[in-house]
Amino acid sequence: MSEDECDPEMEEKMRRNPDLFSTCPRPKRLFCYDWAKSFVSPYVASAESTVNQILETVKLKPEEVVYDLGCGDGRFLIAAARSYNCRGIGVDLDEGLVELARSTAEEAGVSELTDFKCMDLNELQLDGADVIVMFLLPVAIKGLEERILQHLLHNPGAAVVSVLWEVPGCTELERVHCQGAQGQSFRVYSLNRCLARAESAVF
User: The whole model's pTM is what?
Assistant: First the structure.
């Protein structure tokens, strides 16, 4: 079995228990293999109230650029474009979800402000992102944390939002830990971005 293949028995175990990611072998390129489509960033739609709460917390400004890593159906970027006139770039490995995001953006009248791509996150440049949103499993976050940290340090006004899981390498920059809807808590990391006070802050 090559290193980019996943044992069927382990695959089923990981479906039932994502915590096993911390103990299983990590491929050289975390986001490019077929098995990663199901496990590195499984599609779990964020509640609309959580989306709005996150966008309010980071205090988006018109024409800022928002990146969504593992964008799914594009709801974060579509909401940001409609409510704040922000530009958005979303990436996902699932071609069907990328097409859905594009069509939904078209229906919402914000297709000119959004760009959804089917691509490997290793190939994505974070330069120019004012806000980065991600809903990824810990093993995927681990592969990104150094790039995220450097982006925040070089862009003091930028913010990174991680839904559900923390970014271990950025703990000193954590500014908000908030409980969203349906148990979807989120953390906001930034050097000095002005953030709104979260209504459901955990601490």
Answer: 0.79
How far is C-alpha 28 from the chain's CA centre? Answer: 21
3-class DSSP assignment, residue 42:
coil
How many Cβ atoms are within 10 Å of 135's Cβ, its own excluded? Answer: 25
Please check whether residue 118 is in contact with residue 98, taking contact to mean a CB–CB distance below 8 angstroms: yes
Closest listed residue to residue 195, CA positions, set 59, 55, 64 = 59
Count other C-beta atoms under 10 Å from residue 170's C-beta. Answer: 21
pLDDT, tens digit, 9 for 90 and up, residues 32-83: 334 444 445 567 778 888 899 999 999 999 989 999 999 999 999 999 999 9
Nearest residue to 69 (alpha-carbon basis) of 88, 86, 49, 83: 88
Task: Give whole-number Cα distances, 36 to 14, 16, 17, 41, 187, in Å.
Answer: 11, 15, 15, 7, 24
* Structure letter (DSSP) for residue 67: E
Q: What would the pLDDT profile of 18-29 be if each residue is shown by its tens digit?
A: 444 444 444 333
Place of tokens 């976050």: 141
Q: Cα(first)–Cα(last) distance of the chain, in Å?
A: 46
Which residues have C-beta within 8 Å of that of residue 74, sequence separation ≥ 6? 68, 88, 90, 97, 100, 101, 102, 104, 105, 114, 116
The neighbour count for residue 45, using CB atoms within 10 Å, is: 13
